[in-house]
Amino acid sequence: MTTTSPQGRTELLRADGSPVRVLVVDDEVSLTELLSMALRYEGWEIRSAGDGAEAVRVARSFRPDVVVLDLMLPDMDGLSVLGRLRRELPGVPALFLTAKDTAENRVAGLTAGGDDHVTKPFGLEDVVARLRGLIRRTGAVPGRRSDSVLAVGDLTLDEDSREVTRGGEPIHLTATEFELLRYLMRNPRRVLSKAQILDRVWSYDFGGRANVVELYISYLRRKIDAGREPMIHTRRGAGYLIKPT
Fold it and tell me: What is the per-residue DSSP string for 8-68?
């Protein structure tokens, strides 16, 4: 379930209308407090734990919808903690925190069932955006999306907050790029001609300068598709479309 907060962001709620529950597990008290404060600002209910054993105890009563979990804890590693949590809460999504941005850590985390990871030091906005994307993508919070949220595959666009994410990662667009992407996402799998796009996005005829559409499509591809399986496609002589990978 979703609704709109006074700050203009789309809130994620549990099916019963109660706040999303997040368990934050890290032995750095200052980091845990800062992260918990940022997540409470989202309207979410937060519990924290400083080690693995405490995390398991808290999870039994709190029943979190998603877990933020440090890979290095004083009593056990984060991978072991996640294994124990999943025996209590099968399928609960996890965002790993790691101080080492190495391929080995990423592979170990994902192999153990982690759904995403961020490297310390990280931006609070990045963690929040990844959690929002993770909750939506994994269906951790049941219920339908708000009418303001468009989704094509793992790409989401919130028309109210103007937030765009792919795979939980925030994508920053200019006003024109946002309008072009919104038009494409409102018409998934449909080929849109340059004339249609010009009329809808720019609202007037460019007098033969339709190459502006090609230019902005290229801008979007750099931000949406770079390093990923492409979602934006060209149909030569016909136009452009967006579809899930």
Answer: SPEEEB-TTSPBPEEEEE-S-HHHHHHHHHHHHHTT-EEEEESSHHHHHHHHHHH--SEEE
Per-residue pLDDT reduced to its tens digit, 21-76: 999 999 999 999 999 998 998 889 999 999 999 999 999 999 999 999 998 899 99
Spatial CA neighbour of 180 closest among 192, 163, 166: 192
Task: Look up the pTM and report it.
Answer: 0.55
H runs (alpha helix) in the chain: 29-41, 52-62, 78-88, 103-111, 124-138, 175-185, 194-197, 211-224
Q: Are 68 and 20 in contact (CB under 8 A)?
A: no
Q: Between vectors from CA 11 to CA 123 and to CA 227, what angle results, nearest 5°?
A: 45
Radius of gyration of the chain (CA): 20
Burial 81-118 (b: 16+ CB within 10 A, else e): bbeebbeebeebbbbbbbeeeeeebbebbeebebbbbb
